[in-house]
Structure to design on (108 residues):
């Protein structure tokens, strides 16, 4: 499962070795100043829409990679239909990050 690493300057979606293969890319890093909002959702996969380009999907099991819907690009690292953090961005490579986490209340 991907880890969210948040500090004063950046937000990093740190992918496992397997997730890097599934996503066909490395870790995702954005500046903190690009973050416009965050929220916790009960099902991260329900937040991911559009066409996979590139990435890996097994419905209800895994969504790792980039999804594009119109002009919106979402990077997802979702495993199962569990809780996730959605991070809205402006001026970054992606418009949103959606990452499943074990305990979203304790991600800082």
């Amino acid at each position: 499962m991907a880890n969210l690493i948040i500090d004063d300057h950046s937000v990093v979606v740190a992918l496992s070795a397997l997730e890097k293969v599934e996503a066909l890319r490395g870790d995702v890093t954005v500046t903190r100043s690009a973050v416009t909002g965050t929220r916790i959702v009960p099902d991260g996969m329900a937040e991911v829409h559009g066409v996979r380009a590139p990435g890996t999907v097994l419905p209800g099991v895994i969504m790792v990679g980039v999804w594009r819907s119109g002009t919106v690009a979402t990077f997802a690292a979702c495993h199962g239909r569990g809780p996730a953090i959605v991070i809205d961005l402006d001026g970054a490579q992606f418009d949103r990050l959606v990452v499943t986490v074990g305990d979203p209340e304790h991600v800082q």
In short: Helices lie at 17-23. The CA atoms of residues 7 and 71 lie 28 Å apart.
